[in-house]
Amino acid sequence: MSAGKLLHPLSRRAFLKGAAGAVSLATAAGFIQGCAVAQPGAAPQAGTDGQALTDVYITTLAAFADMSMTDTTVLINEEAHKNGINYILEPGAEGWETKALAMVRDKEMRWSANGIANAGNQWNYIQMGLVQPLDELLATSTVPWAQGLAEQYIYPNIYEATQYEGQTYYIPMKLNIHLMGYRQDFIEAAGYETIPETWDEFEIMLGKLKETGAAEQVVPFGCRKEIFRTLGTAFTTFVENPYDENNRLRIDSEEWLQCIKMFKRWFDEGFTNLALLQDPLPDWQKGKVAVGIDSHSWIRLGRSVWGPEKVKGAVPPKANKENPKRTWVHLDSGFVFAEAPHPQEGLDWLLQTLGPEGAAGDRHWSGTLAFSGMPVHKNQYEKLIANSTDFPELVDAYSAVPNSVLQPMEAGKYYPIIQAKIWPWLERYWGGEVEAETAMENVIKEVDEEVAKLQG
Known about the structure:
The relative contact order is 0.17. The chain folds into 2 domains: 12-175 and 331-394, D-Maltodextrin-Binding Protein, domain 2, CATH 3.40.190; 179-327 and 414-455, Periplasmic binding protein-like II (D-Maltodextrin-Binding Protein, domain 2, 3-Layer(aba) Sandwich), CATH 3.40.190.10. With 456 residues, the chain is an alpha/beta fold. The protein has 21 helices and 11 strands. Helix 1 runs parallel beside helix 3, helix 3 packs antiparallel against helix 17 (359-368) and helix 20 (415-430) packs antiparallel against helix 21 (436-455).
């Protein structure tokens, strides 16, 4: 399909499948032999020396199985079979937590590890008793980099984000650095070569984009209705630390009010709209949105339709020119289940799939660049980004990480509550029903009430 010819809007899942590429017949055959779930009554599989293999079950959301983890399991099994282990990856669906918690409670856990816990859920999984600490398993692992992970990460705060109360609970599976993705041809038509440096200058550009895009009904700006995407990313450029001393997003700050008031001006001026807020991705893919702030998947999805010459990316503008580059950064990770039948083997699968080197690690980290996420290890960054011309915006993204605050694990205590309570009030404010201060006073009151219920 040529750039600009959109036959059907792409979902993230459909894009992922296309980006991952077709699996060769040899790989597919290896997967069927090495990873398929054994049928009831089937004879146990045998290793290379004829001994029966021990099946170790792993789960992950289907999107991430497609992204890389089906292939990494095949690669890991090439060596694991020699040691009597057969890894079986079982793709799952959203809502798997209820089933897993019942398994933990009944001490009948099927899976030994999970390939993905998003940043907003990690603290809650620990409180649920769903995951187990990894330090003892890391000390006894035979995977070469198990005891030196901290030295492998590109930034020290990545290691810190895997810790809770002095223990390691997670192995990073992708870094998410949010960016501004835009149509280069649209901003050039408005008289710009690149995104302006400050929000004040950017707001002027939005006005020009409204004029030049009017004939084609192009909306200048698309906002996603998730607190850690568009709005949260913009907020990080206003403050040195977007979290308070309790690791709660600072929605009670003056800077937060400044940020949401900036968005209000954009709604009032017709630079964006409440209908688009519900889901701007289809319009972005159809060429009806000029600029958006999101994870890198926003840029990748745009490029899958319009190509790399038309879709570019950059770190968002600054509140003041004197400020360093900042953006939203969070870490998604894999973990070992509490009551796992094979915890050591589960951790070793994670270490190899999400590792700094090796065939499985190489496959996984290249897969994240085809979907949503970026490497956490120094050498994978050098291999896939620093010495490549395919992702120039990611070099810009990584340069903002040392100035930015990686989402702390404890922020997950508040994140689902804030996400649920804030949007009805923001939509009322942006729609002109209430003032900013009134909206946020009500949000904070409702969040505090919900937190008090949980603590009680």
